[in-house]
C-alpha cells in the first residue's frame, strides 16, 4: 500500500505561511512594505493585543483596481516582478508574491483598495484563504488592509506566541525599522487605541532619531556621508562613549530595506580599532545604497537578510568611510561617562621592573597648541591639569599604555625595530601550549624585535628583545606574553594578531596605577598623550582622558543653569 499522498492546497498554504508569517510583527512588516512599495506618503498602523486580535494598515499609495484586489491574496501573485531576469535587479521591498497569500490563509482578512482611476474602491473578505465577501466601497485612493484573529486556524502556531510584551516589542521594533528607513514617509502607530507615535512626513532622519534612540546615544552621534561611483553611505554612528555590549541600536538600511548584516557591523566595529572595548558595539543608523544588481535580497522568505556581491570592495569602502569620519571627531570622554568606570589594571610586576628602564617620551611629535599648567597627581592614579576648555583628568596607566602602544606600532610598521641584543642570550623552557602560541605569533614577535629560536626539546633561545624590554626578566615577559595570548581568542587575521600583541606589550610596559610620578614626568606624560594619534583611549578601548568643560563646572556650582 503506498503511503505517499499529495497535500491539499489548504495544508500547503498553511505550512508555507509559517515561513513568512512567523508572528503578528511579521504581518505588520509585510503590510508596511506593501504600502511603501505602493508609493504611500502616509501610513497608519493600528494593532490590538500585540497584533493578535487585529492589525490594520491604511495607506495613501497607488491603490489597486478591482481585479487586483481579488487577485492579491492568491498564491504567488505580485505586480513587482514578472521575468526571471527581474530577480537580478529587485527595486521594491516585496517581490515574492507570498505575503498576502500567507496572511490570508492563517487569519480573517479584509482588503479595501481604490486605484486613482476607479470611481470607487473594491472590497474582499477572506477567511482562512476562502473568499467570503466581495463588493465595492466608497474610499479615497489608497489601500486599507485589516487582519483579524491571526493563527485562529493554526493551533500549533499559537503555541509559539511569546508573552504579550515580547510580541508587542517585536511589532514595535518592526514598525520603528521602517520609520527610520523612510523618514520621508509619515507613519503612525496605535496600539490598543493608544497613539504610540505619529510621525509627520519629510522632517528628516534626525527628528526620528530623537524619537527612537535614547538621549545618551543621540548626544553622541556623528554624521557620516560619503560615496564613490558604486556605493553611498549616509547616516549616523555613535562615538565610542555610547557603545554598549548589545548590538540592539544598530540599524542598517540597504537600498531602503532594513536588514541584519554581520559583515557591515563587524567592519564598522573594526574601523574603530582600539577606541572600543572588545565587547562594545557602537550604535548606528546607516543608509547604504548601491546598484540593485549587486545585492541579492532573495536569500530568505522574510527578506531581512541580504548578500553583497562585492563584499571585499564594500568592506573597504565602509572601513575607510568610518575611519575618515572618526578622524574629524573629538572623541574625548566627558564626565557623564564616569558612571560604572572601574580600573581593571592589575599586575604591577612589569611596572616595578620597567619603571626606570622605559623611556616614556619618544612618540613622534604632533602639532601642539595646548599649554598645560601644573599637573597634579591624585592618589598616584590620576593626573589633573587645566586646559583652555576646562579641567583635564588623565588615567596615568591608560595614558602611558596608549603612548607605548603607538611607539610599538611605529616600530612595527616601519620595521625599524630597535632591538637590544642579549648577552648572553636567555634560554627559556616552554610548555606545549606556550610553544603552540609562540609558533602562531613568531612572525609578529620577530617584526617587533624579538629573536627567538628553538634550542632543544622545549628550550628556546632569546637573543634579541625590543629595545624597551632590554635588561628585563626576559623569561618572565615572554612566558607571560605567551600565556596571555593563549588565553585570549587568537584572531585569524595577522593584523589583529599584531595589534593584540602590541597592546599586551604596551600594557605590560606601562606605568601602573599606584606609582608616583615626578612633576616633570607628569607633564611629559600629558604632553606625550596629546601627541598620540588616538589620545582618547588606551589600546583596550578604556578612556585615557576625561575632560570637564568649564561650562559643566559652572553648572555644578550653579553659576549658570
Ligand atoms: P509582493 O509584495 O511580494 O508582491 P504581496 O503578497 O505582499 O506580494 O502583495 C501582492 C500584491 O498585492 C503586490 O504585488 C501589490 O501589487 C498588491 N498590493 C499589496 N498591498 C498593496 C498596497 N498597500 N497598495 C497597493 N498594492 C498592494
Ligand atoms: Mg509584499
Rg over alpha carbons: 31 Å
Low-confidence sequence ranges: 337-367
CATH topology of the largest domain: Ribosomal Protein S8, Chain: A, domain 1
The CATH homologous superfamily of the largest domain: MutL, C-terminal domain, regulatory subdomain
State the end-to-end CA separation: 87 Å
Estimate what percentage of residues fall within beta strands. 15-25%
**Largest beta sheet: strand ordering:** 5-4-3-6-2-1-7-8
> What best-fitting shape do the alpha-carbon axes yield?
elongated
Major β-sheet annotation: 8 strands, mixed
Range of helix content: 25-40%
**Strand segment count:** 23
Query: Which hetero compounds are present in the coordinates?
Result: adenosine-5'-diphosphate, magnesium ion
Number of domains: 3
Q: Which structural class should the secondary elements be placed in? A: alpha+beta
CATH class placement of the largest domain: Alpha Beta
CATH architecture of the largest domain: 2-Layer Sandwich
Please, what is the average pLDDT?
86
SS element count, helices: 17
